[in-house]
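Format notes (please read before filing issues)

Several people have asked whether sequences and structure tokens are stored in separate files. They are not. Every record keeps both together, in the order shown below: the sequence lines, then the token lines. Line labels are part of the format and must not be stripped during preprocessing.
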Amino acid sequence: MTQLAKPVLLPDNLEDATEQAIAATHQAIANGTTRVLVDLRFPELKAMPIAYEFAASFNQRYGKAWQAIFSDAGAAALAKREWADLDVSVRGVNEGRRAIREEDQAFLLIEPTSVEVEQVEKLVQLAGDRPFVMLNPRLENSEVGLGLAARQMRDRFLSTFETAYYIKPLELGALWRRYPQTWQVWQETEDGMQPMAEVTQRPSSDDIDRLFREKTGKQSGSFLGRLQQFFNALSR
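Then the structure lines:
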């Protein structure tokens, strides 16, 4: 791990984080990335409002020639009601080929879970070289009872995606990536959040704990429990 040459500001509110995520996503797509992952790792976060902003940006870029896909039928039905002003085509993961139309130029998948990995992989294959964005995937939330083969399939599938945006609050800092920047580890100080280090690949929890022990003598691999607590630290 190397020291950051100069600080780059983290977002200090959810609206800015969402704007950053959308901009990073479209930049990655413009640079030729077709498998894009966006993950805002806040335990208390509701994905639907963020998905709405992504959907609005897709409407601006692709018009009606894109598809919003949900893993849960209830969430898809809710989006159809709440997104009426966007005139968006909404499908479920289980609809297969109907969710991947020939005329579609891009696809946005909202909060898939590990249960749908096989179905999602088939959708990605059907999408071909068209942009396919996964927003806040929860592919790690069913570890109990998930066999080794299923975990290996999930990990192999995730490795085909480029992370355009990732933010994860930690007890003493944050892990952040905004495409095309590298991964960055930030530390909470008396003066607010400060950049600590950058790495070329996403660090594991052990890597982050080791870095914090080296720099501060403390570990910081656990989540902050409160979303507002994190943004309060950023805005000091």
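For reference, the curators noted about this record: Helices lie at 14-30, 47-62, 73-82, 117-127, 148-158, 205-216, 227-235. Residues 89 and 150 are 30 Å apart (CA to CA).
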